[in-house]
Amino acid sequence: MRTVLNFNANWAFAKEVSEAQNAVNPQWETVNLPHTWNAVDGIDGGNDYFRGTCCYVKSFAKADLPRGEEFYLELQGANSTADVYLNGKHLARHDGGYSTWRVNLTEEIADENILSVLVDNAPNDRVYPQVADFTFYGGLYRNVNLIAVEKTHFDLDYYGGPGIAVTPVMNGTDCNVEVAVYVTELQEGDKISYTLTDKEGNVVAETVCNDTKASFVIADAHLWHGRKDPYLYTAKAVLLRGEEEIDAVSARFGCRSFEIDPDRGFILNGEEYPLRGVSRHQDRWGIGNALLPEHHEEDIDLILEVGATTIRLAHYQHDQYFYDLCDEKGLVLWAEIPYISNHMAGGRENTISQMKELVVQNYNHPSIVVWGLSNEITMSGAKDPDLLDNHYVLNDLVHEMDKTRLTTMACVSMCDMNEEYVQIPDVVSYNHYFGWYGGNTDMNGPWFDEFHAKFPKKPIGVSEYGCEALNWHTSDPRQGDYTEEYQAYYHEELIKQLFTRPYIWATHVWNMFDFGADARAEGGENGQNHKGLVTMDRKYKKDSFYAYKAWLSDEPFVHLCGKRYIDRVEDVTKVTVYSNLPEVELFVNGESIGKQTSENHFFYFQVKNVGESTLKAVAGDCTDESTLRKVDEMNPDYVLKEVGAVLNWFDVTAPEGRFSLNDTLEDIMGSFRGKLWFTRFAAKLMKGMSGKKNGKKGGGFEIKGDGIMKMLGGFTVLRLTTLVSAMNIKFTKEELLKMNRQLNKIKKPKKK
């Protein structure tokens, strides 16, 4: 029988070592896995985290290994290219940092052994991802195991898979279950015992045969029904040689059916089951991507608390333990490969191998319903023939490998809905940030209505939407201010628009957690994307977290927003309360100021701001408290100060009735002189973005159409100049102040 020996302990590690080692260097750092070398520099900003080759070395004696005829090294995550050497001999290379892969060590094992693994996360032109808004942590950041098996064993070589594939298909109330196994060196006379057991361990079907496939019927099957009832069966296969058990594998599975209807959305087991949830990146503050089981468990608990029914696992294959947790908790998953942002002519084989690994390794998880082909891959345009063909190849590959699930992809907002590319997968979703990256929040719902009307047979979803929030605060929230209050407002508006359109097959907030993006320099804390509903350390749930909990969770609660926004200058201030209960009463210093009912779970109170006040919200048996304090001047700790910014918004002069850098392009263009100013500004901007006279492309984005101009209209001039700095379009302080002086000369139109 196979034995799995954990190989995580006592590795010697060194940076910038690109040759295999024949001995353990005692001067090197000793590390235990999981490990990444970018846990700190990958989230501190500057886009200067170490990307190169590092070396892990471990010694072991053959006498200390379990008994077996063959020995495999199993690496569950090595980012992004890795080479394995045993006793100086190169045995394998693997391209792709997020999947499991194995190496047969048998022929090279000696009595005493030196195992050397070179891991490289340096840029290249063949392995995805290379361009993306997240840190590409390097390292052996998941478990490494040594697997001992007999010569005849369930397959360990085929794309890192488990050696068993279970296909349950509903037929009325019964479930037809096919179990296929993959065997290496099967001998004549060997047999395979198949057993299906229910959640309680009772045998529901079994057989013994010499075939690598077996079919069963589970009469009146207990359904896997999402969060309501995530019931799991187990299929086990045992290799028999006479009475001896040679090897065994097992897999849990769920009996369920689903469809995605272009009008009714997601349907699970014949019932409408709205997919409303979040996206998840796997990294954490101070840990990077080297997670332990308790980190995955905490993530699941937080996602369950918010009430989500679905997770988009972005932008790569996640840890098998996390998929297992999703099976157990009933979360419906979108699983994808890191084919993202920048199509590479030399990367096609890597998209194919990573897709094969994703499907083979995760085929048995009932939580997965769609395979994601790519994310925002048309940032340089959607008409590249090689890009289109790559997607057709991947789409056909997935359908060939898995007849039971659908394909999808996440389209970048600027991709025109009429492009051929959009029609390739079975269902499609869009990443839209109207109300954050330009445009206004009220543009979101109408855009999806337009798509649905134009393509009534194509299911449409929302793969990303969100905005950033740090510990900045204001009573006048505006797009781009990075305040917790604007993020809360944004998500209130998006919830009301998206959740009331049943045809949207799935919605995925970007993101459940703040995550590492070392190239980012905005919001006052560089190195992270702060669109999470929860901070990167998982310690603070932002107010927007509770907006979703109010709509999605059945657990009664009430939440007072603004707990970090205590000092306020206004005499009367708005206090927001979220609850999934129908009525909320607010008390100020023990006195009720009234009750409110709300169909959308959002409650707004006007509170007199005098001295220091204790606020208490009551909904049913639930209460929540916060503090309010009257001050004469805005607390400077609440005001965003961009780290490394050339100019902050509060440094901009803005005379009454005149424009400034703090005004939106839409407002500026509302005046004749403002439109003239914008024409000159836009010409300069487009020239810098394209580097070409025609100005058709900027920073990798295809720019055309009224939709893009509507998006740009929501930006303030200052914010737009900050964002385009990521495209190496730089403005000096003197240039910005000159533009501001020009705008100060332009009168704002009188409001009608």
CATH superfamily of the largest domain: Glycosidases
CATH topology of the largest domain: TIM Barrel
CATH class of the largest domain: Alpha Beta
Q: What is the tally of beta strands?
A: 46
Overall shape: it is: globular
Biggest β-sheet description: 8 strands, parallel, barrel
Order of strands side by side in the largest beta sheet?
Answer: 27-28-29-30-31-32-33-34
How many domains is the backbone divided into? Answer: 5
End-to-end Cα distance, whole Å, is: 82 Å
Proportion of residues in β-strands? 25-35%
Low-pLDDT regions: 692-705
**Helicity level:** 10-25%
What do the pLDDT scores average to? Answer: 94
Rg is 28 Å
- What's the CATH architecture name of the largest domain? Alpha-Beta Barrel
Number of helices: 12
Class inferred from helices and paired strands: alpha+beta
Summarize the structure.
The protein is α+β, with helices and mostly antiparallel strands and 752 residues long. Helix content is 19%, strand content 32%.
Describe the structure.
The structure is a single chain. With 752 residues, the protein is an alpha+beta fold. The protein has five domains: 3-149, Galactose-binding domain-like (Jelly Rolls); 164-253, Immunoglobulins (Immunoglobulin-like); 258-555, Glycosidases (TIM Barrel), CATH 3.20.20; 568-634, Immunoglobulins (Immunoglobulin-like); 645-744, no CATH class. The chain has twelve helices and 46 strands. Helix 1 (293-306) runs parallel beside helix 2 and helix 3 (348-362) packs parallel to helix 4 (385-401). It is globular and about 90 Å long. It starts with a strand and ends in an 8-residue tail after the last helix.
